[in-house]
Design goal:
alpha+beta; about 35% strand; about 525 residues; 10 helices; binds zinc ion; 5-stranded mixed beta sheet; 8-stranded mixed beta sheet
């Protein structure tokens, strides 16, 4: 997702790691009122071949009317029996004895306190949008509301209509494919991306064949006032963006892709196959393509391959941030990535999270705090430096394998490391340790002196960062030596991660006038001082 600066989120977040991967699918039927905010819902939670003692479903501040157990028996067909349950306003607890394919069906109603936003859009028309990240699906649908529990989902959204209702012209958009009144996503997706939107929309199709190949259906859903703008500015290259990701990583993970103007509180929210964008930048005609690249990249990383728990959020946000620049470079040239990495470094250096590592278990119960410069720009830098360390071919091969292996499932940073190490055929423990589990970044003082007799430059490199950040190993730090006439020579040197001081001697046939460190900005580091010894 892309955050917007002014967002204030007041959420009470209860961590509820269930680890119940046997969950198959949700079938959710909702009736949306044409006035007010009270919804009527029925949710079937379908399981597969597993016996449980107790089932706990997250559902916050709704009225639960009935809970049934539904079993499918070869002889008797579908059997629905009411079951006893407890509901404390946050969790429905059901003593369950579930065998074979069976489901729980929960009938409920109420005005969602969050997660499903029923209100007016910028043009004063009534709209309804779900906005679930990180654990807000539970405010309007009973779920195992944690990314570890991915499932397929079907929505059946009915909009109440009255004679004077505007809702006759409403359309509903959701995950997956639509058939009559149903939207179904057959792939397992995280609950934080299970959404629908309802209101009046203009829908346009973007599906040019590129290089003779057909792409997946792509639609742009907007309020009618913004339709022409959206098609011609931010989504002009919606198809090309998908094509670049397919070429670099692998097939688009879902059946289609909808880009939806919405009331999400995030700048953009990567809901699986139905990305929701904040409406304000459309209305003010200041929406860029970067957010489209970022959210589209999330369909592969975040949606198809989901972080198994919140401390691994960089597997989603760091990837989407990096691929914003990578897609931009593929479409418009390398300088897009160079500039984007420079901006990412600047954002990270001035952030308040440099004393914390990227994989930050201290925030596991409070994922909102992980929407920070570690998960986004530093996460992007980890990928950029990994690519620099193992080379383009191993890097993209690794990403493709990682995507294929964990698609429709979840992964941790360790899973990612394992795949990359296998593809690169090298141990990268030192790399992942220092960049994911250590805080900070290297700050280097560099002194140099030319030994004319030996025709060598003698360099002293000192890691000046706080001791709490630890030391960093830099196996290939590029140094550029400039002579007085302007000619330059480059040499790579290795900086030790074992000692604060590294001294190296570099062959150089002339006395340099100037020395530059990491001239192409390949590493996330700062040079705090440089000069002649
Ligand atoms: Zn994102």
């Amino acid at each position: 997702m892309r955050t917007v600066g002014s967002v204030l989120l007041t959420l009470s977040l209860a961590a509820s790691v269930q680890g119940q991967a046997e969950l198959e699918t949700y079938v959710i039927s909702l009736t949306i009122p044409d006035t007010g905010t009270v919804i009527q819902g029925s949710a079937a939670v379908v399981f597969f071949r597993r016996v449980y003692d107790t089932l706990r479903l997250d559902l916050v501040k709704m009225q639960v009317d009935t809970v049934w157990r539904v079993e499918y028996n070869i002889h008797e067909g579908r059997l629905r029996t009411p079951v006893p349950y407890r509901y404390d306003g946050r969790v429905i607890t059901v003593p369950a004895d579930i065998r074979g394919i069976s489901s729980l069906e929960i009938q409920y109603h109420g005005a969602p306190g969050d997660g499903l936003i029923i209100g007016s859009n910028s043009y004063g028309r009534r709209v309804v949008f779900a906005d679930n990240w990180p654990e807000r699906a539970r405010y309007w649908i009973p779920t195992f509301d944690h990314p570890v529990d991915k499932a397929s989902v079907t929505f059946n959204i009915r909009v109440q209509t009255s004679l004077i209702s505007p809702s006759l012209s409403w359309r509903v958009v959701s995950n997956g494919k639509s058939r009559r009144f149903f939207w179904s996503e057959s792939h397992r997706i995280p609950t934080y991306t299970m959404v629908f939107g309802a209101g009046e929309f203009s829908v346009s199709e973007h599906r040019p064949a590129i290089d003779g190949r057909d792409t997946i259906p792509i639609e742009v859903w907007t309020y009618r006032e913004d339709s022409v703008y959206a098609d011609s500015v931010p989504f002009r290259r919606a198809t090309e963006i998908v094509e670049v990701m397919q070429r670099l990583i692998g097939p688009f993970p879902y059946e289609n892709l909808k880009h939806v103007e919405s009331s999400t509180k995030f700048g953009g929210m990567e809901n699986s196959s139905a990305i929701f964008y904040a409406e304000k930048p459309y209305v003010e005609r200041r929406m860029g393509e970067g957010v489209v690249r970022h959210e589209t990249a999330h369909q592969w990383f975040g949606d198809a391959v989901t972080e198994r728990d919140w401390p691994h959020l960089w597997l989603s946000e760091g990837f989407a941030t990096y691929f914003d620049g990578v897609i931009g470079a593929a479409l418009d040239g390398d300088s897009v990535l160079v500039n984007s990495m420079r901006a990412n470094a600047a954002a990270y250096f001035k952030s308040v999270v440099t004393d914390r590592p990227i994989v930050d278990s201290g925030y596991a119960a409070d994922p909102i705090k992980l929407l920070n410069a570690n998960s986004y720009p530093k996460g992007a830098w980890v990928l950029h430096m990994l690519r620099g360390t193992i080379g383009d071919s191993a890097f993209f091969r690794g990403l493709r394998t990682y995507y294929t292996t964990y698609r429709d499932s979840t992964a941790t940073s360790e899973d990612f490391q394992r795949v990359i190490e296998k593809e690169a055929r090298t141990n990268l423990g030192w790399f992942f340790h220092q960049w994911l589990y250590q805080p900070g970044y290297p700050q280097l003082d560099v002194t140099w002196q030319y030994d004319a007799g030996a025709r060598k430059v003698v360099l002293g490199i000192t890691q000046r960062q706080k001791p709490e950040w630890g030391l960093f190993r830099l196996p290939a730090l590029t140094l550029e030596f400039r002579v007085a006439n302007g000619a330059t020579v480059r040499r790579d040197v290795a900086v030790s991660g074992d000692n604060r001081e590294t001294s190296v001697r570099v062959d150089l046939p002339f006395a340099p006038a100037e020395v530059r460190v990491d001239p192409d900005g390949k590493l996330l580091l700062r040079v705090t001082a440089i000069g002649r010894r």
